[in-house]
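Hello Y.,

Per our agreement to keep a running log of every chain we model this quarter, I'm adding this entry. I've kept the format consistent with earlier entries: sequence first, then predicted structure.
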Amino acid sequence: MNRSIAPEVRPFGHLTVPPERVEILSNGITLHSVAGGDQPVSRLSIAFTGGAAELGSETLSSLLMSQFSEGTLTRNATQIADILDYNGARISVRPQAHHSVTDIWFLNDRAGALMPVWADCIANASYPDGPLETAKLRALSSYMSSRQDVAALADEAFTEMMYGSGHILGKPLTEEGISSICAEQLRTIHNRILNPAGIHAFLSGKEDETVRRSVVAMLESLPVSGAGFTADIQLMDSPSVPASRFVEKENAFQDAVMAGIAAPGREHVDYIPLRLAVMALGGYFGSRLMMNVREEKGLTYGISAYLLGSREGSYVAVAAQCDCDSTAVVIDEIKAEMRRLAENPPQGDELRRLQLHAATSLAEILDTPASIMGYYANRLYVGTPDEYFERQQEVINTLTGEIIAEMASKYLLSDNLSVVVAGRKKK
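Predicted structure for the entry above:
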């Protein structure tokens, strides 16, 4: 390779997502699998129906999953940790709106040793008081630290505003909510989520039939006695007219700004074109907001815009932090860039850069078996429609400035923008 010559830049060409294999196991659990990769490593994600909406908070969901490895009826936390560490396994948890998810990464040749232990953790988690209290202290410490972060305060108030007052997914976390979690509560929920009809397992990694047999045996060994949860989906009640809120943080060094507008859901024909319009607005480093508010005016270190879609609905959000004296100017510039996107949309090199960034982001889904499986898992978690990948590719390839202008005119009307500011009270 001659490193003095820049590599050729060319389009990706047509991309396709490898198909997943889906089967219903003997006890009713749904197993999704994608094979691929060069390294003998796999990831098993298990999603139990019942997430933040059904349990009341992401923290409760996270504690429920994280305590699997802290003790069972036959093993204590030290014994479990020794087995996981010796066999090179790594575990994590991911609370979702309507699912509680636990992941285990492992070497393929250690699956036989790990899966029976992991089955014991899932089926027989005992939720001992000591480890739970330690986990609660960590959660409380994280929560108290967030009270000092204007970005966290703004995001909390903004989420409540966009979901609507009283919506379970917009309900702010409280210190009392964390402190009140107890082992008996977790045991009750744990017994309930062990319902195979509400369990989806996602296996990804290098093809290995021995691994597959170990995983299937583990999943089929799980008890089937739980009553389960039904996903509690309540539509968002975003502001129909512009709303504003100020969250005071005494002695804050800067303000955090969150601004947003309700948007069509993922199933709407405009969702993907709007997502690209929002990307042009603030979705990558060369976006309009970054070039204006950061690069030209130097008002913020970073500013971003994104379209968030869920089963409850969708909204566009813009987030930034700035000097307290510059807040009004930043908000004005956000509104100005929304108008300019409709009046003077990307053309020429700017449009090509946007398409390349969008195509690159889409292609990253194909990087690993785990990222491919993540694409399929999102259909369960947030309701992405079938053929979502193919549809995104089609819209990216046919994107024009006129389409972006149309989306901005229809959905990014600056007069409808709702704004939350968290920071120091102005004199």
